[in-house]
Amino acid sequence: MILPKKLYFCEEKKMKSMLVGFALLLSLLAFNAFAAPDQNYGGHFGDMDTNSDKKVTWDEFKAFFSDAQETKFQEADLDKDGTINHSEWHQFKEKYGYGHKQQ
Fold first, then answer.
1. Do 29 and 16 contact (CB within 8 A), yes or no?
2. Dihedral of CA 75/78/84/85: which sign?
3. Are 57 and 81 in contact (CB under 8 A)?
């Protein structure tokens, strides 16, 4: 099927835009592949639980791990109550094989 010149130009422009978008996506993926590895989220639960309420909040987590990623905190919070309990913490560490952080 032969497309009118105007329609062909529009299709060519769309294809170029899609290729540029795809190239940008590949660039982002490549950057993430070479980014620094996750920090070691090992640590004693009691050292993070500074107020001894048997729960670690995001603020306590961030204070203990200065480069903490909130996504890691949320992943460790298995019951999604906004805190990490002792059991959740050990399950999280076991999943990633984290050891204990030395203070």
1. no
2. negative
3. no
Contact predicate 61/73, CB 8 Å: yes
Q: Output the six-digit token pair for 71.
A: 């996504």
Contact 89, 42 (CB under 8 A): no
Q: What is the CA radius of gyration of the chain?
A: 23
Encoding tokens for residue 77? 């919070």
pLDDT tens digit sequence for 35-78: 445 678 889 999 999 999 999 999 999 999 999 999 999 999 99
- Across the chain, the runs of DSSP E, i.e. the strands, are none
Beta-carbon contacts of residue 52 (< 8 Å; ≥ 6 apart): 46
> 56, 83 in Cβ contact below 8 A?
yes
Q: Write down the CATH number for the domain with range 45-96.
A: 1.10.238.10
DSSP state of 34: T
Which DSSP symbol is given to 84? B
